[in-house]
Each structure stands twice: as structure tokens, then as C-alpha cells.
Design goal:
Helix content is 4%, strand content 38%. By secondary structure, it is mainly beta. It folds into 2 domains: 224 residues, Sandwich (Jelly Rolls), CATH 2.60.120; 185 residues, Exo-inulinase, domain 1 (Jelly Rolls).
């Protein structure tokens, strides 16, 4: 699926400062492609293809997240078997091998998420060699040149650097360098507003507050290959500053769209939806760039519903003119890669979910990122949609690209409709262009 193209530009030695960081060489941006897999200068070799094996068609891939973590809002940025949702900016040989993202060949470059993020907690494992010079880029711009302005670079470099592992290049040095290691290590990083904390192997190494005139509010997450072999695995993110939009008691802040022939009731701290014909419950508030999370359960087989967003205010003559994140757990031929009706997590009439990972009669969590023309969806922490809306602009998202703020709504579809919704939350994303 299309996505925002991501690029990385680095500064050639202008000063000793840049020589000591892990930013080195400038690279042009590759052209935008029609899918979310990283693009490089050469086709992947047969060996590389064999190293990245898709799960069987009838299984739900294991993300490594527990049910409790999924309900708490965690998502997997790396699915463990592919680079879906990531974008390489040059010909570094990024590949997946046995649940690990690795690279060892090519000029310095980045592998970046196609979705930008603002406030979040991030967990990841990494492994270095004595020759490795790498970094984890946070809130990075499309084309970073200066780590003091364009990103926050968490350095991963045990030797040959002024900024040891755990430092923010050009911004903050850790007080005591950590011992060099060739074993797997784990970082937990928290970005909230102007504050960044990081713990390495359970010990806090960084507590930084950005008081500069170059604070970054949003941007991509990037893995860097600079020198030597670098490996990453278990990359997870939990959005922060999420605001509840359903209080579990009543439908304050929501309204039933005129003309609806569906029933929306609060039952056991959930919104219960049934229908005779289509109907919609929409928020009074609107959002343009945002993260949305919610839990749903379909109480029947292959029921049809959805979350509408950036929708025009509903009326009897136009109840649901918005983008729709599909809810439909049906599959064909017992194959989860063959959705019956676009599949849960698809952008209905625009994309199909690459795999149906939710089941009827079970609660599942949807995470939606809408930023500019880029839209991504995770179901139970597994990314199923990564899409760029390249259509011509139009007030109505059914007809074209809509960037303007709109309502979020829940759909009652037909007489079989019987669903429950809970834990509906939204976080507005900064307007700054990543």
C-alpha cells in the first residue's frame, strides 16, 4: 500500500561535532512506491526473501504482546516477519531474519516508520558489534540534517563517539558510559512533551528536557545503519496523552445522526449497537490529524460495522460521508489473507486488510493513525493497513482526499448488527509536518 516516503540526509564533516555523531553521509530520496515495504536500489536476493517468511495463511501472527498490553494500547511497529509499515531511504540491505531486523551493508541510512508519532513510550531490543555505529531516531523529520534541530538521535555506539550509547547526539550526554556489550540489550524510551527519559536494561540513563528553540513535537521513528552490523527486534509503541471520548455511563459528547435506524445504548460500560437498517452515532467533536484507539466485539458471525472518521456532519440525506475503518472478521477459504469483505482494519472501498487477525465473539483493539494523507491501522497490535490517499482533494472522503477535521462515528449496518464498543480514546497529533 502507498505510504509517506521517508528520507534521511546527513551532514558531511562540517565540524568535530558532526564527526562524533552517527550522522554522516547525504543520500537522495527514493521515489514514492505503491506499497509499504522498504525500497532499495537493488532487488532483494533469493536468500533475503527466504529469510523473511510470512506466517501461514490460517494463523494470527504472534506479535509478542500480551492481551493486557494490547488492551493498554501497545502496538508492534515491527511484526516480526516483514518490513510492512517501514520505509528505507537508500540501498542499505535491511532484511528480516528469524524475527530480527538487521543490516550490515551499504552507505549510512535509515529505515523509518511510515507513520509519524508524537508522545509515546517505546520499547526495543538491539545488538551491536564492536564496529557498530548506529542510532534510534525519534520524532525525526523527513530529511534530517542536524540532530540538534531535526530529530532526537538516541545513540547506539559503544566506541568512537563523543556520545555513548544512551546519549542524545548533540543534545545530552549520559553521565556514565555503559559497558560495551555484544549481547542483546533493551531500551525503554518515553517521550512526552519536551521530556525524554530512557532506561537501558532496566536502569535509567537519560532524563532530558528540551528547552531549546528546536523542540520536536512529532516525527518518524528511524533505525540507523551507519557502520558495522546492527540488529533490532521487539519494537513496540504505546501512544500517550490519549483522551477518553466515551465515559462508560452515557452518550455525552455523542449524537445519533438524523435518519438513523439503529439503536445505540450504554450497557455494562459499553456502547451496544443493534440495527434495523443503517444508523450512525457520531462525536460532537472533530479531529483532523489524530490517533484513535477503541475495543470492539461482534456478537455474531462475520458482522459488518465500522469506525468512520474525518466525516462530514451526518444528516438524513448523508449519514456517513467519511473514511471508514472496516469491521468484518469474515475470511475466504480459511485464509486470513483473503478477507471476505475488505477485512477488519481495512479502509473500506480503498484498501483490503493484509490479514484478518481478529475473531468474532472476542474483544479486539483497533489503533488508527490519520496524519495528512497517510492512514495506518493496527488490529490487536498488528499492522494491517498502511495507505496513502493520493486522490484529488474533495470535501467528501467518499469522493477524494479530505484533510479537514471531521467526526468519528460508529456504524449500525443491518438487522444482523450486534456489537459492543468500549475504551474509545483519541489523541490530537501536532500539525507540524514530520
Amino acid at each position: 500500500m502507498p505510504q509517506r516516503t521517508v528520507n534521511f540526509v546527513v551532514v558531511i564533516a562540517l565540524s568535530a561535532f558532526f564527526l562524533t555523531s552517527c550522522l554522516k553521509v547525504e543520500h537522495p530520496s527514493p521515489s514514492a512506491k505503491s506499497n509499504a515495504e522498504p525500497q532499495s536500489g537493488e532487488a532483494a536476493s533469493k536468500e533475503e526473501i527466504e529469510k523473511s517468511v510470512e506466517p501461514a495463511e490460517d494463523v494470527i501472527p504472534e506479535t509478542g504482546l500480551t492481551a493486557e498490553e494490547i488492551e493498554a494500547g501497545w502496538i508492534a511497529l515491527f511484526d516480526g516477519h516483514s518490513l510492512f509499515g517501514w520505509k528505507a531511504n537508500n540501498d542499505v540491505n535491511w532484511l528480516v531474519e528469524q524475527g530480527v531486523i538487521k543490516a550490515d551493508t551499504g552507505k549510512p541510512g535509515l529505515l523509518l516508520t511510515t507513520s509519524p508519532f508524537a508522545d509515546y513510550e517505546l520499547k526495543f531490543d538491539f545488538r551491536l558489534t564492536p564496529e557498530t555505529n548506529s542510532g534510534l531516531f525519534l520524532r525525526t523529520v523527513f530529511d534530517p540534517k542536524d540532530p540538534t534541530k531535526d530529530c532526537y538521535e538516541l545513540n547506539l555506539c559503544d566506541q568512537k563517539t563523543e556520545y555513548p550509547t544512551g546519549s542524545l547526539v548533540g543534545r545530552s550526554k549520559i553521565q556514565k558510559p555503559v559497558p560495551a556489550s555484544q549481547e542483546w540489550q533493551s531500551f525503554v524510551v518515553r517521550l512526552e512533551g519536551s521530556e525524554i527519559q530512557a532506561s537501558l536494561n532496566g536502569k535509567e540513563v537519560l532524563n532530558f528536557k528540551d528547552t531549546s528553540n528546536h523542540q520536536r513535537k512529532i516525527g518518524f521513528i528511524g533505525l540507523q545503519k551507519n557502520e558495522g552490523v546492527v540488529e533490532f527486534r521487539n519494537i513496540y509503541l504505546k501512544p500517550l496523552r490519549m483522551s477518553t471520548i466515551f465515559n462508560g455511563v452515557d452518550l455525552a459528547g455523542w449524537r445519533v445522526v438524523p435518519g438513523s435506524q439503529s439503536t445505540f445504548e450504554v450497557v455494562d460500560e459499553t456502547i451496544h449497537v443493534t440495527a434495523e437498517k443503517q444508523g450512525y452515532l457520531e462525536t460532537e467533536e472533530t479531529w483532523d490529524n489524530f490517533l484513535f484507539q477503541a475495543m470492539a466485539k461482534s456478537n455474531g458471525t462475520a458482522l459488518n460495522s465500522g469506525y468512520f472518521f474525518r466525516a462530514i456532519k451526518g444528516s438524513e440525506s448523508g449519514m456517513a460521508n467519511g473514511y471508514e475503518v472496516q469491521i468484518h472478521n469474515g475470511i475466504n477459504d480459511n485464509d486470513r489473507t483473503k478477507p471476505e469483505n475488505a477485512g477488519t482494519g481495512a479502509i473500506f472501498r480503498r484498501t483490503e486488510a493484509r490479514r484478518v487477525v481478529s475473531n468474532d465473539h472476542e474483544w479486539f483493539t483497533t489503533t488508527l493513525s490519520a496524519y495528512g494523507s497517510h492512514i495506518a491501522v493496527w488490529i490487536d497490535g498488528y499492522q494491517v493497513t498502511d495507505w496513502e490517499d493520493t486522490r484529488k482533494p474533495d470535501e467528501n472522503p467518499r469522493k477524494g482526499l479530505r484533510l479537514k477535521a471531521g467526526h468519528i462515528s460508529l456504524q449500525g449496518h443491518d438487522p444482523t448488527t450486534d456489537l459492543n464498543f468500549k475504551n474509545l480514546k483519541v489523541s490530537t497529533l501536532p500539525a507540524e509536518t514530520p
